[in-house]
Each structure stands twice: as C-alpha cells, then as structure tokens.
Amino acid sequence: MNYAEDRSDRKGRGKDIFDDFVQAIEKRDHSLLGRTLRDVGWVRHAIFHFSKAVIDEDTLADYSQMVEFGGFPEIGILALLYYRTGGSFIHSTSSDNWQNDRISNSSWLQSDAPMGHCGCGFSECGKFLCHIPMKGSLEPVFDALRMYFDQLPSRKMPRAHDVLVALGKEEKLSFSDCIPEVLKFWEESYVSSNIRPVSLLTQMLLLKQAYQLVPNLAAEAIAHMKVHKSHFLNKYKSHNAYFVLIKAVVLGERIKPSRRKMMKEYHVPVWDVLWGYDGRRNIRFRWQPSSTHTVAHFRQCLENCNLECSPEKVRIKWLVTAPSGMHPLFVVGDSHVLSVAWQYVEWNDSDDIRMLVPVIVTGLKAWHCRSDTRFFTHSLLKILLKRLPCETNDILLSAGEIDCREGFGGPLVEGYACDLVKLEHVDRTVVAYVKALTQIPIEIWVLPVAPHIHRSSRNGKAAGRAARRQLMQFWNEKLMQILPDRNTRLLNYANDLHDPGYVLKKIYNADGTHMNSAFLPLLEQARQQYVARERINL
Fold first, then answer.
1. Quick check: helix, strand or coil at residue 98?
2. How far is the C-alpha of 490 from the C-alpha of 252, rounded, in Å?
3. Which of 38, 224, 442, 493 is a plausible cystine mate for 186, CB 3.0–4.6 Å?
4. Mean confidence (pLDDT) of the chain
5. Rounded Cα–Cα distance for residues 326 and 18 (Å)
C-alpha cells in the first residue's frame, strides 16, 4: 500500500516495467501484475488483479487504495468497512485460467488500455470499472451508514477549540459513543465480537477516502486516532502526510472564538464548518446530508461498478453533498485541494456561495495531464472529470507542487530531469500543462503553486528548499505569462502569499507544505477581478 515507494515515473515507459509484466504472468502473481498495470495507467485491469490478490487486511488495503486510484473511493470505503463486519472475499485459486499470449510484445504496455484482458487470459480482467471481490452481503455497512446520517441532525457536538483543549488534557472524548461500531474504525476493541479492528495504516487510508465523501465521519476519526512517530511513519510518509494535513485543516489551532473575531485573516477549522459553528458573513449552516441520498449513492456505486461498462461512459457521478441552496464548486487535483476542502467561497457575487468539494487525484503532477501520459494519475484524472455532475460548468484545479518538489518533465519522456535549476524544464512543463488543460471541455480555474514555509537549516536541506521556492516562483510567473487561454484561467494571488525569499506567510500555513483556508479571501479577490472585467465587456 506504499504507493509513494512504488510510484516511479521512469516506469511509465521502459524495459523494466515489461520485465515485471512478464514475470508476474509467468509466476501467476496478481499483486505484482496489479502494480505493473497501475504504473502504465491500466487502472481497470490493475483493480482486477489487486482484487484477485486479496487474502488479508494488507492485501485488501492495497485493493482499496487501487480502486481509489481508479476513481471510486466509495468502493474502497465499502470494502474496508465490509472487512470490519467480518466479511469474506473471493480468493484466487490454483485452477485460475492464466494465459501468456501477449508477453512477447514489449510495445503492448505502451498502448491505451484494451477493452479485453491485459494478457493474463482472465475474461473478467478489464471488463468492469471496479472488480468487486466481496462475496457476502454489505447490508450491515449500509445500515451503519444510514444510522450515522440519521443521527447527525440531533447530535450536539463541541467546537474545534474545545476538542483541542480536551486532547491537550488527554480527556476522553465521548461525542462519538453513539455511532455504529463498524464506523469507529479508530478503536482497538469493540463490544461486538464480530467487528474486526484494523491497523493504523488502514485507518489512515480509510480516513483519506472518507474525507472526500463523508467528511463528518472523517472529522470524528481525526479527533480519536492516535498516531505516534515511529519507523512505520517513515516508511509510509505519504499516508502520514495526508493524516497530518487533514488533522491541521479539520481542527486548526487553539484560538478562542472571541479572539478570532479580531483577526483579519484566519483559518476556520473544517470541524466548525461541518458542525454549524462558522458564522462568517451571516451564513450559518450545518452539514447534514440526507441518509437516503448518501446510502443510495454508495449502493449505486457498488452495483454499477460491477457491471460491464466502457470507461468512456462512466454512469456514476460524484456524490454532491453541499447544503441546501448552495451549489458545489469542485476542487480537482493533488493533495493541495484539501487546503480548501469543505470551505465555501463567494464566486460570482455575494449571493453565489459555493461549497468547495474535494476531488483528489493522488500524486498528480502537472506533467501527467498530457494526453500521452501512461500512468495511473492521468487515468484517474480522466475518470474523475467524467464523474463530475453534468451541470458542472467550472472547476478549480491544482497541480505543479509535486513537479517543483520532485522534478520536471523533460526529454526523458516519463523520466524527470535531475538538474532542478534548469528553468527551461519549468517552462516546458508549464506549457505542456496549460496545453493539456485547454483540451478539457470545461472552464478551469488554475490554482498557483503555493510556496513552502521557512524551515530550519539544521538538517542541511535549506539550500534545496530555497531552490524549490525559486522554482515555484518561476512556475507561477510562467503561468501568469500564458494564461488566460480559452477556457483556462489563472487565479492570480500567488504574490500575496509569501514574505521575502518566497517563503509562505505563517498565517497561511497548515503543515509546512500545504496552506490552510486563510488565503481564500485572496482567491475570491482574484476571481472577482475576472468577474468585474467581464461585466465591463458586456
């Protein structure tokens, strides 16, 4: 489940990926074949082989993560909760009908994913959007979700500040005692002997997936999960990074509500937004999605993903849970979309309030947006864009920070240039990125790359971090030069985010790499500049 360790863009095209493919089929290794197909962007086929590899919690977590990479985190959530109810899975057997009729053609993996099998011989491989390995009833999971959402309107919850105070005193938090046991995935022991506990790693995965679709449950989990630094966290840095970021934006800092009123810019904890304690601009609501609508959506995902379906005709749209009278504004892209997830903004005017709904494309680089990319992030982006509701006219899109941090697309095709000071690679990548976005038939508002905060120079990494901040500045300047372009526009607020040296201002910092929502007034101002110009032109 450590995708950061496996994720290697150099494998997008190359001999070693084909060697893995050949070896996986010869050894009948579903897990290796799933990882190999994931790294060339054949997500439907990868999901099938990850599902055939499920034998325990770890392999189920691999499957759950892969279906998220395939564009359906709902299935990942259901699979993990089903496991917690004691559910069983369809296992691979020695009698499985393996074939190897295509392993002599090394160009096979450089093409688009086929509608048939990957070369393994299984008739079900690549046939479904998400192959489902659960063989029992999921009704206990649906019942638990229904009960949870039915309880939301009547539950009395504390403010984020009060939760932080209680955590600081190591007091017991009792506000989640009433929810169904199967949903308390953070607990280690249960009254019912049928409920299986899950590892911290699986908890982190379930947290990330739940935050995209059932943020109230994820917020409660953040308050209860106990994470301590260890060699485990060093191995799974990406999962821990998501946990740290989600905790930072959900609970925020210990700032008394009375003091917050005196602050010009501040981050409103997502906890307070969801539970109705955010009174900005006299807008007050409590996030209370319909249990009928939400459970029906999860059920529809399960039923439709297991039907034969063309990837060009994705029937299952994204779950829309904005409060009544408030339209969603989808924020698509890398982990930086979580900086603003579940907040709201004034979009066209003060009467047009939008809820910012996160749609995470894990690991997305700007370079991956190109149409000829062979990697799961590109496939995932395409599927998620198809899953947006038909009435969606515009989205926010975030990418580029990983390019600045890990390296830029260059002449090595799927590889990345090692010399990060060569600004021509930034130029090339930004041009390719914008060209790819202009080919997407929807109005896209591009978010600039946010600078990092200043960090201590004690570990010897200060020079590299300073260089990355310069690259981020050049990246944003290049975006300013070539946007707007047709239906793609830049929300130009980057210069207001940083202090001298292109260091992120402390007020906007969430975890050192990502911002919190305090910058949203800058985003609104950038948007209003476009609105004002359009009205003048009319």
1. coil
2. 28
3. 224
4. 85
5. 49
Phi (first) and psi of residue 359, to 5 degrees: -130, 100
Tell me if 433 sits within 8 A of 366, measured CB to CB.
yes
Report how far residue 285's alpha carbon sits from residue 167's, in angstroms, rounded to the nearest whole number: 26
Cα-trace Rg, the chain: 23
List the end-to-end C-alpha distance of the chain, in Å, as a whole number: 53
Q: pLDDT tens across 132-179, in order?
A: 999 999 999 999 999 999 999 899 999 999 999 999 999 999 999 999
Q: Annotate 341-373 with b (16+ C-beta within 10 A) or e (fewer).
A: bbbbbbbeeeeebbbbbbbbbbbbbbbbbbeeb
φ, ψ for residue 470 (rounded to 5)? -65, -40
Number of Cβ within 10 Å of residue 86's Cβ equals: 14
Cis peptide before 133 (omega within 30 of 0): no
Query: What phi, psi does 293 have (nearest 5°)?
Result: -65, -45
- Beta bridge partner(s), residue 89: 134
User: What is the distance between the alpha carbons of residues 154 and 288, in angstroms, rounded to a whole number?
Assistant: 10
pLDDT given for residue 232 in this prediction: 63
Closest CA to 70 of 314, 436, 338: 314
Name the nearest CA neighbour of 2 among 200, 197, 198, 201: 201
Give yes or no for a contact between 126 and 48, defined as CB atoms under 8 angstroms apart: yes
Q: How many CA atoms lie within 13 A of 455 on its CB side?
A: 17
Please name the residue that has the structure tokens 């896209």: 444
Q: DSSP assignment of 366-413, as one string?
A: GGGGSTT--SHHHHHHHHHHHHS-TT--EEEEE--HHHHHH--B-TTT
Helices (H), ranges, 252-319: 257-260, 270-274, 291-305
Whole-number Å distance between alpha carbons of 285 and 276: 5
As a whole number of angstroms, the distance between CA 512 and CA 528 comes to 29
